[in-house]
Amino acid sequence: MVNDDRNNLQSSFQQVPYCQSSSSSSSMQNIASSWEKSVGVETQLREGYKGNLFLVLEYVPHDLSGVLDMGYRFTPLQTKCIFKQLLNVLSYMHENKYVHRDLQSSNVLIDDHFRVKLADFGLARKIAPPLFQNVIDE
Length: 138
Description:
Layout: H1 2-23, H2 39-48, E1 62-63, H3 64-69, H4 76-95, E2 98-99, E3 108-110, E4 116-118, E5 125-126
């Protein structure tokens, strides 16, 4: 039980830097938004809940897995729209040197207007440059 709590906490902390860096970009609407910070309220809440971490994300009513499990049939236009949004968010992440590493239908959130949000960045990692970029074979 303690190990599970520690792993969940560690996973949550790993998601925080990515959520903070992605939410500062106005061009990225397809990543599930994280929280807003306000200094006074944050300090009061931190004192009241020492030792607990709460992630507050926007509400998106569906995930792709659940919609498919309900037997919903997407039109070709809806499929293209969803796929294009997913490619846009992945392109944005890769341009900023991040990889998601847990891309699955349950991490693709969809609202009632077929707007897509990518979620669950627990396995996401920053891509480091190659260690030996300038090595010359002799």
